[in-house]
Design goal:
This protein is mainly α and 93 residues long. The protein has a domain of 25 residues. 40% of the residues lie in helices and 4% in strands. A two-stranded antiparallel ribbon has the order 1-2. Strand 1 and strand 2 form a beta hairpin. It is flat and about 70 Å long.
Length: 93
Amino acid sequence: MLDKKIVKKVAEVARLNLSEEELNKFSEDMESILHAFRDMQNVETSRVKPTFQPVETKNVLREDRIEPSLSQEDALKNAKQKEKGYFKGPRAI
């Protein structure tokens, strides 16, 4: 089992106050996680080709075209809150 001192140290670094019951539970959980990683280290991968992207990706680009845009008046015509020709929103602090 994983040493409770290690779990307690990790909890302190994460600024968590864990009860004794939580320390026991997390010790078991962390031990289980470490065991899963140990199992993965035993998998034979010497003949497996490394991959960084399992699904091939391709950039889809479109041609840049200049098109007419909305006038300021048209852009603001449905805005509930506007002021001096601009959209008005809540103040951000």
